[in-house]
């Protein structure tokens, strides 16, 4: 039954992508057009220049007037058929949900973008766990935990949603497809659950309009979201993520075999071309990212790959070191029956290395995974934790706990080990979410054989003991494929997995 659902989902996804591919390629008109991201009902980024852009006949004049700006701005469409206008945008004011109008005049035609709000705009990207929607989709998705109640309660008309049409392309596209919609029970259900809870938390804390752009697509690898030129510029990335596909891409292009292309979601650059590049003129606050399952074997290169992707995005958007807040993959039993296998733990460890990149943050999800479900249903904590990182690090709100206990060091005391944690991550104390002792601590002696340890919380530290281990020298916490953990801080945030060895 599960296999049938997965296969049906894949077929449905391919069908959707084929339609997207064909419809995007057929739009070769030189008629005047405003970029699809610029519509009525949108949110525009506060306190940054707004780019109004589009396409049309070379030489024609375009005039743009925003109701908050005293003067209109005019440009002429260039020889390539592109035009762009820059306008200043004021800072958002808490509690101000004024509906603005932007007027675009081309020749004798006037287009009005109405019900436009000024607030914060975030891009939510990744693979299926980011794309995973609130609502149930018959024969495909069960919907998130408590989806009926959550969908019915999603009445936040000052949160606006834009879902980028899914697809793949061989070359960067000038435009995308999608529509801006107010967040209501009628619209929220088909949007990213993680993205929705992220935006809702920002809205409730900041009290300003929030715009969310969902650019996620199931089953895709990180290299698919990355500009192929960025990959080709690095020997290691080119060898690992471009060279294996070069021949296949050439053959598919020659045959124009779209169905084969659309099944192959690991090809470098194809999602970037279709779903990321067309967004680059949009002023945004930052990115959220939930991806990794399709790169689970890249335990030595994922951080380098993801950093290259992010550097490319930051270059395209040209707004400095935009925040990049991402989700560490949840526990999942890739190797069923083996509770000690650690390949997925090594991938999580590789994800942690992304934290060395400026303006990044990682949400831990070790407590909300489902070992037998690659798409865990409890999406609310994931979105809220991403939002808390943004509220603390981007918006600098005080009193926001955004990380669980972070390993600081350990001390051997005879046959026991005392673990210490960074004080700023303890949040008024350590505890478990079920009242039991902390699980998934392991210690080892010089023989390098790890044994599960009994763990006891003592103040702001954890003391470990395993009768099989004398003179312990190494510690691991939650360093297996699918440990659903119970150890957290007083704010209810789970402890980060770690190991002290390099075995």
Structural description of this entry:
It is a single chain. It is globular, with a radius of gyration of 24 Å. With 503 residues, the protein is of the alpha+beta class. The strands form five sheets. Strands 2, 4, 5, 7, 8, 9, 10, 11, 12, 13 and 14 form an eleven-stranded mixed β-sheet that branches. Strands 15-16-21-20 form a four-stranded antiparallel β-sheet, with no helix packed on it. Helix content is 25%, strand content 25%. The chain contains twelve helices and 24 strands. The model is unreliable at 1-29 (pLDDT under 50). Helix 4 crosses helix 12. The two termini are 39 Å apart. The chain folds into three domains: 11-118, Immunoglobulin-like; 121-393, Rossmann fold, CATH 3.40.50.1110; 407-499, no CATH class.
Question: How would you sum up the global shape?
Answer: globular
The CATH topology assignment of the largest domain is: Rossmann fold
Summarize the main sheet. Answer: 11 strands, mixed
- What is the residue-mean pLDDT, rounded to a whole number? 91
Assembly context of the chains: single chain
Give the structural class. alpha+beta
CATH superfamily of the largest domain: SGNH hydrolase
Distance between the termini: 39 Å
- Would you identify the regions where 5 or more consecutive residues have pLDDT less than 50? 1-29
Strand content: 25-35%
CATH class group of the largest domain: Alpha Beta
In total, the number of domains comes to: 3
Give a count of the beta strands, DSSP E runs of length 2 or more: 24
Number of helices: 12
Proportion in helices: 25-40%
CATH architecture of the largest domain: 3-Layer(aba) Sandwich
Rg calc = 24 Å
């Amino acid at each position: 039954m599960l296999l049938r659902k997965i296969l049906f989902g894949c077929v449905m996804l391919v069908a959707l992508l084929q339609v997207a591919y064909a419809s995007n390629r057929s739009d070769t008109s030189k008629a005047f057009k405003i970029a699809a991201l610029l519509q009525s009902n949108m949110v525009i980024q506060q306190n940054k220049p707004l780019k109004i852009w589009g396409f049309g006949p070379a030489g024609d004049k375009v005039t743009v007037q925003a109701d908050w700006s005293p003067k209109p701005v005019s440009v002429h469409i260039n020889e390539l058929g592109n035009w762009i206008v820059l306008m200043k945008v004021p800072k958002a004011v808490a509690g101000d949900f004024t509906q603005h109008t932007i007027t675009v005049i081309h020749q004798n035609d006037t287009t009005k973008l109405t019900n436009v709000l000024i607030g914060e705009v975030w891009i939510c990207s990744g693979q299926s766990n980011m794309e995973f929607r609130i609502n149930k989709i018959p024969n495909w998705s069960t919907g998130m935990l408590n989806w009926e109640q959550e969908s019915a309660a999603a009445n936040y008309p000052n949160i606006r949603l834009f879902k980028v049409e899914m697809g793949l392309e061989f070359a960067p596209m000038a435009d995308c497809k999608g529509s801006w919609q107010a967040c209501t029970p009628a619209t929220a259900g088909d949007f990213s659950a993680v993205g929705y809870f992220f935006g809702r938390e920002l809205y409730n804390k900041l009290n300003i309009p929030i715009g969310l752009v969902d650019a996620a697509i199931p089953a895709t690898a990180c290299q698919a979201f990355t500009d192929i030129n960025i990959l080709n510029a690095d020997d290691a990335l080119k060898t690992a993520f471009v060279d294996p596909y070069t021949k296949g891409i050439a053959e598919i292009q020659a045959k124009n075999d779209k169905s084969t292309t659309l099944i192959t979601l690991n090809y470098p650059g194809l999602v970037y071309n279709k779903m990321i590049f067309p967004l680059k003129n949009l002023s945004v606050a930052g990115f959220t990212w939930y991806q990794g399952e399709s790169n689970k074997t890249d335990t030595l290169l994922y951080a380098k790959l993801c950093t290259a992707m992010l550097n490319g995005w930051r270059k395209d958007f040209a707004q400095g070191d935009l925040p990049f807040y991402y989700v560490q993959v949840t526990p999942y039993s890739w190797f069923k029956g083996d509770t000690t296998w650690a390949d997925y733990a090594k991938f999580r460890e590789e994800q942690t290395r992304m934290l060395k990149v400026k303006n990044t943050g990682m949400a831990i999800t070790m407590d909300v995974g489902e070992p037998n479900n690659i798409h865990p249903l409890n999406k609310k904590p994931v979105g809220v934790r991403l939002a808390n990182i943004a509220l603390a690090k981007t918006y600098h709100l005080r009193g926001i706990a955004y990380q669980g206990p972070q390993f600081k060091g350990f001390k051997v005391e005879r046959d026991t080990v005392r673990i210490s944690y960074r004080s700023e991550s303890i949040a008024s104390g350590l505890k478990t979410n079920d009242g039991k002792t902390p699980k998934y601590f392991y210690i080892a002696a010089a023989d390098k054989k790890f044994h599960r340890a009994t763990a006891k919380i003592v103040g702001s530290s954890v003391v470990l003991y395993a009768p099989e281990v004398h003179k312990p020298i190494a510690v691991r916490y939650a360093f297996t494929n699918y440990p659903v953990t119970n150890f957290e801080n007083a704010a209810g945030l789970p402890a980060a997995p770690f190991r002290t060895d390099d075995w």
